[in-house]
Each structure stands twice: as structure tokens, then as C-alpha cells.
Design a protein that fits this description.
Layout (H helix, E strand, L loop, with lengths): L79 H8 L1 H5 L4 H9 L3 H5 L2 H25 L6 H8 L2 H33 L7 H17 L2 H27 L26 H11 L8 H4 L8 H29 L10 H10 L3 H16 L2 H16 L17 H18 L3 H4 L3 H23 L4 H26 L4 H28 L14 E6 L5 H13 L2 E8 L3 H17 L4 E6 L6 H14 L4 E10 L12 H12 L3 E8 L18
Parallel strand pairs: 1-2, 1-4, 2-3, 4-5
Length: 681
Amino acid sequence: MSTSSDASGDAATPTPDAPARPDTPAGPNGVSDPGGAGAPRGTGNTKNTGNTDAPGGIGNTADTDRPTKPDRREKHRLTSLQGLAALSLDAMASVAYGPEAIVLVLAAAGAAGLGYTLPVTLAIAALLAVLVASYRQVIAAFPNGGGSYAVARRHLGKRTSLTAAASLVLDYVLNVAVSVTAGVAALTSAFPSLYDDRMWLCAGVLVLVTGVNLRGIVDSAKAFIVPTAVFVGSILTLIVVGLFRSAPASTEAAAGHASALGDDATTVGALLLLKAFASGCSALTGVEAVANAVPSFRAPAARRAQHTEVALGALLGVMLIGLSVLIGRFQLQPVEGVTVLAQLADASLGHNWGFYVVQFATVVLLALAANTSFGGLPVLMSLLARDNYLPHVFRLKADREVHRHGVLALAAVAALLLLFSGGDTNTLVPLFAIGVFVGFTICQAGMVVHWYAERSARWRLKAALNGLGALLTGVSTVVVTATKFTEGAWLVVIALPLLVLLFERVHRAYGSIDDRIGLGRVPEAPHRDRSLVIVPVSHLSRLTCEAVNAAVSLGDEVRAVTVTHDDAEDQEAARELRRDWARWNPGVELVELRSEHRTIGRPVSQYVRRVYQYHPGTRVTVLIPEVEPDRWWQRLLQNQRGAVLAHAVRRDTQAVICRLRFRLPGPGPVPGPPSPSDPVN
């Protein structure tokens, strides 16, 4: 076999006049991802992005005059309107429980306490404006997404950034579970006969949202534009009609229900107002989702995301303030078993079809609010995987720009939470707001450092705004954690540091792998070793012939091995195989491996280890022939011997495993071997 020249006749080996170039890179993708074999060229490699000569690479700037083709991926990304539908459902749906959370806290002080509903809501709206302005700047400063994680990673250090990431992960996962259970709870309130089936309903909604998101974020946005528009339109209609009423149009929804108003308190203290403010801040969940998913928007992505963020803040603020004004206008009191929003719809629109439209729209949007998490968390997980804090598989994308593994992981964890809670919203709500407040506080503090370091125009004003936001959200975090600690918030207090430790453990594992494979260091010159290919066989067939043909094409030496057992039936089969092998005479040695147990993996792996022991410089390849069936269900008919053998060899040896897939020919005569005159491709 000659290796001195290639097919075109150019010299392949160095000559005295043409010395070898040891500094020539092996390729644009190198070995940056030890777990990413098969990753697309030019993606996932954060070490070699400067290779501008690599065709198809990210940094290819060699032909700047060449006209660029439209990015086919753009059609799978969001417009501003689609982003509002895909990423704002969580925040929009919070108007269904945000004002109610304020009212329920203030009701402990009686009618006097309810008079503070609007001032508390205005304070929350002011914080909302601060958050929207802040995240608008985050989008501009960090167009690759990540939100509070990206801000903290640059300005506050690794541990703080991981805390922000952990808080976002918890918030997104809990949002899915809370949204699904809240939507189903609203449905079972309207139809009590469905109450016993709420777990199946939760599972059905989760499967629906997951399936839509697996088709792409654009498809999910298109599917949810109409429900979002109906909900927002119905709430705004409710507010406008209610503002023109001097008295409730109907109180039928609350009739016959016990009042939840406290009658033993006459004063409103600062602590009560602070607690009401912290509870009402649950309406701010989801504001950060747009900043986390900037790469999901069409170009110019940052500008579209900023428009979406502002639109989200404006709509949410108008709805929160409008509903609070109506609560004071109608002197609404909380009652058991009827939501505040339902009472407002009844008082404003009357107990008619308008009332049921609001209720139905609320049910649908609450159930679909989980879509916000499916739009934001997979992008965040992709960034964490890029930085080696999560498995690299979360970095991969499907054809429709979908982080499929992130979507499926989110759905799986949310399903576990649904099982844990039994489909009960009240079990999950105490855990919900803490994570997002931690992320808010870290993001605001990081932006203060950002403005101080950048010192752009009016940086002091911007830093003061973010500092105020950090103070308010930090106080809210402490208050919510303290007041909800015994109701389940302790789980979040434990889960946050555990997630941070998990991220660090994954990072150390990747660092250890990179160090052991010599990532970033120039390796020694390639050299050729003796090659031995081992082919496990159990009988003669065309599959065996194809495997031996492939083996002799791959290695310097080929050995066929067969595992035999001591019972009479197996010994007879072994004798038949030896006889048939001698008649075939392929020029390949057949080695029998005796085994006391009916197992094939261990004898083959032990044989490979003996080869390494007696011939340490040999490169061993185990070629496992397998039939590729015509239909997927025919895989169930296979004995899985190849998978068992591959697992044993991979676990116990350093051998290369090659699984030869032999596709069955169609009906008709079996083609024979090619003649010498046949063309070779």
C-alpha cells in the first residue's frame, strides 16, 4: 500500500525542499467538544471561532464581496408580534392572579386595607417600568441572550452568574407546572365534574404545549397569537366598560360565597403593605423572558426584542392598573371560591356571554402560559452548555431552530412536578416567585456595575434606576422567602445552591476531559500503528460476508471470533460453523472463545484486553454487523446482541467500535459480487 501521493499526483509526504508544517490546524472544529461528535461544522466550537479560512465556518470572511444569500433559518425565528405571543404569556396571565394576591393580603386589614390596593399596584407598576427599562438595556448589551445570567457572568463573577442561572431554571420549570395546574383549576371550577380527572388534563395540556414547541418557536407563536389577542382584548374591554360604570352591573358570581375580608383589624401597617407588594410582584414573572431569548428573534434581533419588551411592559402595566382601579371603584371584596378577575368581569360586563368569554380566555391563556418557559429556558440551557455548565447536547438544534433536548428536559421535569403536586396549584405557588426575584435582583445589580464600567451618557441616572430596582426586588425576595418559607419556599432555598453545585460539577468534569485530551495543545505528529479488526460472528450469511469485506478494507489483519458454550446444542452449532467457515475459506482466521455463561460481551472484551496485553501497539477495531430492518417496528424482533456487545467492549476496553448497518435488499434475486469489469464508485 503506497502513501506517497494522493489521487491527483501531488506529493503527500514531506520532502527536503517542502518541509512539513506542524502548525497547520487539523480543521475548524478540532476537538473542542469532547461530547459533541457529529456536531455541525462551525458550530459549538468556542475555541476556534477565529479560523476565517475554514469553509462553512462561523468566522468565514474570506469572500466579503460575494453576495450573501438570505438565511434560511430566519423563517424559523420570531417577529416582534410573534415574540409577544410566544414569550409574554406568562406575564400576561399573571394579571389573573397578581391583583388577587394583593387583595388577599390587604383583606386581612379589613375594608381599610383594600383602600391601598391601587397605591400598592402603582408601586408594582413603577417597578415594572424599571424592569422593562433595565431589560431593554440588557437586550442591547447582551444580544446573545441569557438575561441575568449573561449580565452576572460578565460583571458579577462565576458563582453569582450560576446563582442567576439556577434561579431562572427554577422559575421557568415552576412556571410550566403552575400555569398548567392553574389553567386546569380554572377549567374544573367551571366544570366540577372534571375535578377527578385534573391530572390527566394537566398531562394533556403539557403534551400539547410540548408538541407545538417541538415544531419550532415560530409555530408555537402562530398557534398562540389568537388566544393572547382574545385575552388581552377581553381584559382591556372589561377595564374600559368598567370605567364607565358607577356601580357593578352584576354581583351574581360572588353571591352565596363567604367573604374573605378580615374584621378584626383597623390599621394598615408598613409590614402588611410590604407583604402585599411582595405578593403582587408575582405579576412581574415573565418580564425577563424576552431578554433570555433574544437569539430567537429575526434580524435585527436586539431591536425586535426591545420592541417586544416595551409592548409587554405597556400592556401588563395598563391591565394591572386598570384592574386595580376597578377594584376600588366597585369596592370589591374577596370571597372564597371565586377569583377577583371573575368578580370584576361580572361587575363590569354583567353575568352574560362577555363574562364567560373572559373566563374562557383566562383558562386558555393560563394553560398556555407555560409556553414562555419553552421559549426562554432552552436558550438559557444552550448558553450554559456553551460555557460547559450543562451537557453539550443542550447546545444542539433541530432543523426548525429548536433546542429539542432542552424542550424535552423541561417537559420531563415539569411532569415530575405535576405528579409531586397532584395537579394542585396551591402546592406550587409558594415556590414560584422566589426564583424570578433572585434573578431580577442579580440582573439589576449587574447592570449597575455595567453602567459604572461603561460610563456612557447619563450613566449615573441609569445606574440609579437599576440600583433602585435591585433594592426593591431584593427586599421583595427577602419578604417573599420569609413569609412563604414554611409553605414550601424552603425547597427553593435548598434547590438553588444544589443547582449551582450541579453546574460547577459539570464544569469540572468538562475541564478534566479537556485537560486529559490535551485540548488547546498542539499534539504530536500522526503515526501509523498496526491495525487489527475483530469481527464477532455466530453463523454464515450475507451479513457475515459484508462484515468481513468491510473488515479487510479497514485493517491490516482481520480475525473473526465466535463465542461457544459447553452444552451439546451449542457445541453442535460451533462444529457446523467451523465446517462452513473452512468450506468458505475467506482467508480470515476464526477464533473460538469459550464461555461458561451464556454471554457474548465479556468474552469478546476479555479477548480484546489480551490483544492489548501481548501487542500493546495495536489499534483494535471491533466491527459489529447488524441488520437494518425495513420498518421501525421490526427492530423489536432483533435480539440486541450488537448493543450488548458494544456496551461491554466500550466499558472494558479502548477498542474502536464500528457497528456495520446492513440494509436488507428488496424482494427479487440477490445480487452477486461485482465482476472485474464493473465500474467502481
